[in-house]
Amino acid sequence: MGIALGDNRYGKAEVRLVRVDRDGERHDLTDLTVSVALAGDLDAVHLSGDNAHVLPTDSQKNTVYAFAADGVGEIEDFGLRLARHFVDSQPAIRRARVELAQHGWRRIELPGGPAPHSFVRTGDGTRTATVGYDGTGAEVVSGLTDLTVCNSTGSEFWGFARDRYTTLPETTDRILATAVDARWRHAGTAGTDWAESHAAVRRLLLAAFAETYSYSLQQTLYAMGERVLAGRGELAEIRLALPNKHHFAVDLAPFGLPGADGVYHAADRPYGLIEGTVARDDLPPAIGLAW
Amino acid sequence: MGIALGDNRYGKAEVRLVRVDRDGERHDLTDLTVSVALAGDLDAVHLSGDNAHVLPTDSQKNTVYAFAADGVGEIEDFGLRLARHFVDSQPAIRRARVELAQHGWRRIELPGGPAPHSFVRTGDGTRTATVGYDGTGAEVVSGLTDLTVCNSTGSEFWGFARDRYTTLPETTDRILATAVDARWRHAGTAGTDWAESHAAVRRLLLAAFAETYSYSLQQTLYAMGERVLAGRGELAEIRLALPNKHHFAVDLAPFGLPGADGVYHAADRPYGLIEGTVARDDLPPAIGLAW
Amino acid sequence: MGIALGDNRYGKAEVRLVRVDRDGERHDLTDLTVSVALAGDLDAVHLSGDNAHVLPTDSQKNTVYAFAADGVGEIEDFGLRLARHFVDSQPAIRRARVELAQHGWRRIELPGGPAPHSFVRTGDGTRTATVGYDGTGAEVVSGLTDLTVCNSTGSEFWGFARDRYTTLPETTDRILATAVDARWRHAGTAGTDWAESHAAVRRLLLAAFAETYSYSLQQTLYAMGERVLAGRGELAEIRLALPNKHHFAVDLAPFGLPGADGVYHAADRPYGLIEGTVARDDLPPAIGLAW
Amino acid sequence: MGIALGDNRYGKAEVRLVRVDRDGERHDLTDLTVSVALAGDLDAVHLSGDNAHVLPTDSQKNTVYAFAADGVGEIEDFGLRLARHFVDSQPAIRRARVELAQHGWRRIELPGGPAPHSFVRTGDGTRTATVGYDGTGAEVVSGLTDLTVCNSTGSEFWGFARDRYTTLPETTDRILATAVDARWRHAGTAGTDWAESHAAVRRLLLAAFAETYSYSLQQTLYAMGERVLAGRGELAEIRLALPNKHHFAVDLAPFGLPGADGVYHAADRPYGLIEGTVARDDLPPAIGLAW
């Protein structure tokens, strides 16, 4: 009977790394969660438990810490260094994938100016990167997650398809809120100012969300993706997943407040989920190392 | 400039459905979380906000509830009914994907026997299913998640690759613990007793985990997958994701307890993550509707 | 100006301890999360940073592990050993409070019987204990949490107070579901078979929930507490916190299913929260060391 | 036998309320989670299921929404309005406690200035308030939670008590990180500018954390509390709970990097937990309605 091993990978997940860079009294803080996944010639370990080709996930964790010894820099670069190291130094390993999330911190503001080595966590979006490398090519996907945004007007929803299960009334004014989960693939891996590129994409996403008069969350999604690609020539593709965080207007009439409005119930579940890709059609598609 | 819409889908996520079936005093409880994702001819809504092809996610939610009116049955069947309905009834929709999780309940045991309509939540593994349909073919993936298991011995780890970052000592006796996340694809969608099949796969996974003397978690993963496919002819493929939930033996010697052992620190992060597929090689691969 | 230090305590929280007891091939597993909080003569450390009275929280963690070297036993006993140790061995410490949660495991069932050293996590309620000691007296509170239960009938709610904001219809048949969070104080700390007592309380709670025909969740709460105290003479008091996990019947009439029922939406938030104490009135009240 | 009902309360928890205030194009957003708990003459409902004294938790939820119809204002005021309403309008209710959390949003910045009705969630600390009222007196506790801060130097820990379980080395330079959970009681409820007071306390907490050269987290806690009370005459008491979020320096010597430093592992569990109160000693203590 033909039973065989298929695709597989292994690695260390969620290594929590904090790096402090000191310049006298003034420090900088880098706070990352790093996950490594390796694939390659790993049949023996699955079929017989022979670990000769298995670099322990503990060693992968150590490598993440050791590579931080001389600085982390931008997460895309740090991921590339790690991915290349694993494939280029381990004969059995053919592909590496490194996922990184950078947790934001900013300096505490004191009356005399920003504190030199005291920080407060920000919570308005986590910067992410995923890097893939197969010994020949590398692929970099940057991203952000947990960026929750809301338009309190400028959103309609009507003219939709109806069936026997449709009870939703049409609306010409609703709250549109979502938690942006966006990832964008760079056309290449050389010459990009990752920090500048990321900050620009973030600004474009926020601006497109705020400035798009919306007839559906899909329209807003496409507008956000198109704005990013139109503005950033270094990018090939962007994927967005936008949960529609429903806000239901509370009917206040039963409480003797017939004309009142402006009060909403923010629901947890269920939620809409809108997912889509916007891509340049004149570029080669992804190799698939970093998605 | 060539910027275009790529893959996209939309739907309602995490509809919380509880169904009570009554047979006199004796009730049965079905507790599901259902997510729907639809794809098809949806360019217009992205490009211009024209919703004519968009069945509201609210209607999708209503459909989940309405279809439960005459009973839910097995989640694979319920998912197939829903997926087929959306594609077959909505001209613009070409593909539907329905994800279902069934939360376990069992009857409360009373001195006089099982209670007729009182239940307690179980927590030893959630049954899942994902169903895909494209108007022609359907694909069913069953699964389970959150099944945490532990072997307190019978696990070694040595003979692994070493590099300059390797400090892990070899061991011939360790705790092996993981939270099983498994999904298996059925070769077909007709004629399967889904409940019997699921119960059997669960038993096979647990038995293979318990009975495999392990030199690596990869070996255990393959043994689990092989055991399932060898025992269940209706299945084509199984994918497993096994976090290695590390338990570190506490060195008690510094506390004046030099010979003592049996005490472990259960770590949260980082953790190993072992992912792999075991498949029949004499069957056509997945269409990809339900993964 | 009169600014002064008030109540304070410190300790190590959420020590994750797993203990394996070996009897040949057959093992037993104990899986705990332990938190320690100490109070006493700690003014100096707050006012000037003088740590002379501060046993490090790292030492507290080590103590938890070291005390497990010769076995854990019942969590109430383990907590008492720890609490007494800290107060009796540290001159500056006057009070200790130890919180313990025991995560459930049971043996994996194999065709030949229960596996000797392979286990699966249960998820139907976590056993807890909190122990307080002040150098003279000790107090033990046992408990359980995360025990989710549901009556699919046998619950009414009507005849309630109404005001201008009341829109809730009365009902003579509803689902009653809650996640039991219960803690009960033992009248003494000696001579109790903690395991037997805990198992009995759990059975009484489940039976009272199932067997009480309910006109309000408050009534069910009191019935559960009374049943426990009436059945267990070793207990002085029980406190229950019962979230009312609302299940709303879905109106299926708009979908052309006018007579259909049995379909519910399980809501996340908001939820009712019913909290109450049932106590013997012929016993001294709690010293307050373990609540 | 003497079994009796003790302390009890009930209410609706986690009502999710969003209020939009419109001034032409320019909107303001208020996003709250509100929980209500009521106590009073509630014996009958516990003992016999008689609901005549029970205002449904559904009505409490409606009240929260209805009271938002004419604006929310500061959460302390909104809580006071609600607490007074329940006690003053329901004859059976003697005490009300309202907990409020305000989720932060700020305007999206566009090239032309702040967006008029587009917002992004902030994540650097949630403002909270708890209000108690018993028909005579009211008590207000303001607070903040989830404010994570870090000093990358300026923290030592040595000279601590040692026992046989102590292995922790002394240090004269460590990372000090915590997630501030602070609540402070106002001496009165009239005449306070709640928003100004809250912003000032937040600044004082951050400044004291950043500016205190620390020999222990207890010292930092007291410094934070003292700074707040010294600076804000309207406050009577402050309670702080500070988890010590341990950052362990990674020893890089085994990787051939003997002099390297600045790399830390951020641990999840266990963590230290430091809790303390700082209070004016020339003021009456809390009635206990709002803690």
Describe this structure in words.
The structure is a homotetramer. Chain A has about 290 residues and is α+β, with helices and mostly antiparallel strands. Chain A is about 20% helix and about 40% strand. The first copy, chain A, has helices at about 45-50, 55-65, 75-90, 195-210, 215-230; strands at about 5-15, 15-25, 25-40, 95-100, 105-110, 115-120, 125-135, 140-150, 175-185, 235-245, 245-250, 265, 270-280. An eight-stranded antiparallel β-sheet of chain A has the order 2-3-4-7-8-9-10-13, with helices on one face. A two-stranded antiparallel sheet of chain A has the order 5-6. Chain A has a two-stranded antiparallel ribbon with strand order 11-12. In chain A, strand 7 (about 125-135) and strand 8 form a beta hairpin. In chain A, helix 2 crosses helix 3 and helix 4 packs antiparallel against helix 5. Chain A starts with a strand and ends in an 11-residue tail after the last strand. Chains in contact: A-B, A-C, A-D, B-C, B-D, C-D. Chains A and B meet through strand 1, helix 1, helix 2, helix 5 and strand 10 of A and strand 1, helix 1, helix 2, helix 5 and strand 10 of B. Strand 13 (about 270-280) of chain A pairs antiparallel with strand 1 of chain B, so a sheet runs across the interface.
